[in-house]
Design a protein that fits this description.
five-stranded mixed barrel, globular, single chain, alpha+beta, 14 strands
Length: about 325
């Protein structure tokens, strides 16, 4: 990455925002006294480019790409490549590539930290070996199909993960807004391992939902949930119950009863439903008002950037708009 782009990104990342001293983590990894950060006030919601996302045009990956190594973490096939500028990217294949690319853009649009993702429908990788996972997405000539490329930012160091139920932001408006966003996008995979704490240049700790692949389908347990499935998303609910001071949103993650024999798994998955419950109505309305500043085109662009066809992107955007209206009316 050239120096002007690096300087620009540093300026953007260091804008004032909502920060909290993280005393719990000061005793562990990272520098004592560094700030815990979840969200920054976005001053340009109406003009943010959701087609390009947080990396903008300057960080767009460009070939030729060179294979570096395979990554066996998580359930999706992944590997690392290096582009023509020497920038490294983590490639994710499979049914999470599209929804994750759209989800990061919507979160970034309203001020949350996210990974920098781009979706490429097809690209060639020099030196690509036979993959242990995801080989079905590789055509002859080492051409890879349908991939999300996540920027490997050398200024970010993962130091830990974080829990939805124990973190420095519990009870804040910004954290409650993030809970709403998970329900709005139907993110059913809310396990702790999917949340990362990144240390940025030894100055601050960024709390990020680092895996957003299980979105824009249907929440549920076992055989009923889905990812990036338009019909499922359109047919799923959003607001479950409204009380004078709080709202419960739809979040189904309880496994089928046959899984009850695996007690830790069953308890963990069942507990995830609480992320979308007992959200203050004022906080849900607040995030809805931020989202309402996005134009229909911006929302549609988030899905176009993720490789969805024009018709599918429009259908997703219309449903997202409807959910935004429901939040604003709370």
């Amino acid at each position: 990455m050239n120096k002007p782009i690096s300087t620009l990104l540093t300026i953007v990342f260091l804008l004032p925002g909502t920060v909290f001293p993280d005393k719990r983590l000061d005793q562990g990894k990272g520098l004592p006294g560094s700030r815990a950060v979840l969200w920054r006030q976005p001053s340009d919601i109406r003009t943010r480019n959701l087609l390009l996302g947080p990396g903008g045009r300057g960080l767009q990956p460009s070939g030729p790409f060179r294979f570096i190594k395979e990554d066996n973490d998580g359930s999706s096939p992944k590997f690392v490549v290096e582009d023509r500028s020497g920038v490294r990217w983590k490639v994710k294949l499979g049914d999470e590539a599209k929804p994750e690319s759209a989800a990061t853009r919507l979160l970034w649009a309203v001020g949350y930290f996210t990974d920098v993702d781009y979706y490429l429908p097809e690209f060639r990788v020099a030196g690509l070996p036979k993959l242990s996972r995801g080989q079905k997405y590789v055509k002859s000539g080492n051409v890879v199909s349908g991939a999300r490329l996540e920027w490997v930012n050398k200024d970010l160091k993962k130091i830990d993960d974080w829990s939805w139920f124990d973190n420095p932001f519990v009870g804040t408006r910004e954290f409650n807004g993030l809970r709403v966003m998970m329900a709005l996008m139907n993110n059913w995979d809310l396990k702790q391992a999917n949340n990362a704490i990144y240390e940025f240049r030894e100055r601050e700790r960024r709390y990020v939902v680092s895996d957003l692949g299980a979105t824009f389908g249907k929440t549920g347990g076992g055989w009923t949930r889905s990812k990036g499935a338009l019909t499922d998303y359109l047919e799923s609910g959003f607001v479950h119950d409204i009380e004078p001071s709080k709202v419960d949103l739809v979040m189904k993650s309880r496994p089928p009863v046959v899984y009850a024999v695996a007690v830790p798994y069953y308890v963990t998955r069942t507990k995830m439903t609480r992320v979308a419950r007992d959200i203050p109505r004022s906080d849900a309305r607040w995030i809805g008002q931020l989202l309402a500043q996005l134009s229909d085109r911006q929302i549609r662009d988030a899905f176009r950037a993720a490789g969805y066809t024009a018709n599918v992107a429009q259908a997703y955007a219309s449903e997202v708009r409807q959910r935004i209206r429901m939040l604003v009316r709370l």
